[in-house]
Write a structure and sequence with these properties.
11 helices; Rossmann fold; about 20% strand; nine-stranded mixed sheet
Amino acid sequence: MRDASLQPLPATSLGVPGLLRLDYTSSRDGLRDWALLRHPAPGVRTWVICLHGFNANANQLFMRRDLKRLWLPRYLEHGFGILSPTLRGDAWMNPPAIDDLDDLIDYLRSLGATRLLIESGSMGATGALLYASARPHSVQAVIARSAVHDLQTYRDFCRAHAHRHPLLQPIADSLDRAYGTSFPHLDPNALRTLPLLLAHGTDDPIMPISFPRQLVGLLHDHPRLRYCELPRGDHEAPLALQSPDLLQLALDLIL
């Protein structure tokens, strides 16, 4: 990460005092990108990384009403630092995005971060799983809501069922842009090394329930895996899930 600059945002812009915009140049290929962050309370060294969903960017956590109402207050009441990066627009976590998040995490550690928790939904949750699989020692826990783990199979699903939902064709196109013909393979052994919490609706039309069920099968002997399946829940249902409290479960596992 080069040419980083940090600028405060007016509290009236997103309604969150202390919010900063980090602009930077990727050390991988010179791409100019940005993230939003908020420093933790004094003495707190835990940061939450929130990766955005499809067709969104770094401000989603602070703009989308359900996330701002349900997720953001929890982070603030714990005094956590918050990082919400754009990561090249489509946070599918291809190799350039992994490199960029590596640099962003190094930046957080330079600010004193010692524990990093990723909590994201949909595309962001998928990216969180892929990043944790590639860099299991860089984060301390992952909460993934409405995620998939096998991107090539998911791309094929989106193409085959594009007539069923208007997002599936654009998602398939974005996956092809991100990966071409070289899709990543998630490493179950890497995920076994850190707390992992998954939540998914059984009637999700965008990311089918078959994906988390397969992942849970691959991780059947994971000692710190928690899986919550929501009967008749759609793609959005896990985003509002507060009981069981996935954030508190993750904290219990890493504190």
